[in-house]
Amino acid sequence: MRDGTIRNNRMEAYKESAIDKYESMLRVHAMPAIGGLRMCDLTVSVLAEFIDLLAAEESPETAKKTRDAISVCFRRAIREDLVAANPCREVRAPATANGRPSRILDLDEQAALGSAAQQVDARLGHSRAFPILRLALDLGLRSGEILAAQWGPHSLDLHQGTFTVGRFGNLARKRDRATGKFPMIAPKSSASLRTMEMPPSLVQAMERHRSAVGEPDDGALVFADGLGNPVCAVNVLNRDWQRTLDSAGLASPRPRFHDLRHTWAVTMLRALGVERVQVVRELGGWSSTKMVWDRYGRHALPSERLGTGAALDNYRSSHVDTSRNGPGMAP
């Protein structure tokens, strides 16, 4: 994978993050348990038992990633005529925590998060939690896209009021082995390359943030450590997010940071009108309009569920044909 001789199903080179994930799953989980077996002895039943046990002892997500890593090995072995079939195709993927419904925040909850993030920044004496929150809620950015942002026309342009996700507009979550730093990597897909118009209030918030961090020059990271280097998403972003949630006091279940992106999509569909789902697809960097519509177009904000019973009666009362009432329908 690292030298490009093994590629994915689309015949593209694997991303460094995917390589690290596969290597870790094979080394930590697969090899100690089944590494002594020949590939031809890894039947569907053997692999299914191993994956189910891994899901119970570790997590469903770890089990799924390990199964996927083993599947890559089998695909390569098939190409080299070492085995005849890939048993991983018949092994059920464990249900993961990522399958739980997205936590969509209503406007009051979004405002509560904003106030809480400002309190976190004031308490810690920095400018970070609130501007990161605003970028996620106002533009639907992924965490890696936020932490890769740089000041200037090619990224976060305060003069034009735009935010651009470019070719290396994503920050890796793992340090480079050679440099010890977090590298800039390509976004998830070509659809992720995009330029978005920032709301005027977001431009003002980012202007205040730039002033608070010492007016860095164009090309400098919007969010950096004391030496100007990229920050760790796990240690910085997630800690601020948990602090913000603690201060906001939202009802359970507590939203994940990525739920801000889901919230943005639902809010934007209502702001633009669901008939403009193509615009939302382009702004959010998704590859499929169908995926956006299936995931968000039919999603209801919590407040929209209130009063639906009375609304049904009101609708029927205003549209019913009094001469031909349906069963049980009051005129």
Describe the protein.
The protein has helices spanning 16-34, 44-57, 60-79, 107-124, 129-139, 143-147, 200-212, 233-248, 259-272, 277-284, 289-297, 308-319; strands at 156-157, 162-165, 170-171, 184-185, 194-197. By secondary structure, the protein is mainly alpha-helical. The strands form two sheets. It has a three-stranded antiparallel sheet with strand order 1-2-5.
Furnish the topology, listing elements before pairings.
Blueprint: H1 16-34, H2 44-57, H3 60-79, H4 107-124, H5 129-139, H6 143-147, E1 156-157, E2 162-165, E3 170-171, E4 184-185, E5 194-197, H7 200-212, H8 233-248, H9 259-272, H10 277-284, H11 289-297, H12 308-319
Antiparallel strand pairs: 1-2, 2-5, 3-4
Helix pairs in contact: 1-3, 2-3, 4-5, 4-8, 5-7, 5-9, 10-11
Indicate the overall shape: globular
Question: Using DSSP, what is the number of strands?
Answer: 5
The biggest sheet, with number of strands, parallel, antiparallel or mixed sense and barrel status, is: 3 strands, antiparallel
Q: Secondary-structure element order, as H and E?
A: HHHHHHEEEEEHHHHHH
Portion in beta strands? under 5%
Which whole number gives the mean pLDDT?
Answer: 83
Helical residue percent band: 40-55%
Widest sheet: strand order?
Answer: 1-2-5
What's the helix count?
12
Backbone structural class: mainly alpha
Please mark out the parts with pLDDT under 50 across 5 or more consecutive residues, or reply none: 320-331
Distance between the termini: 69 Å
Alpha carbon gyration radius: 24 Å
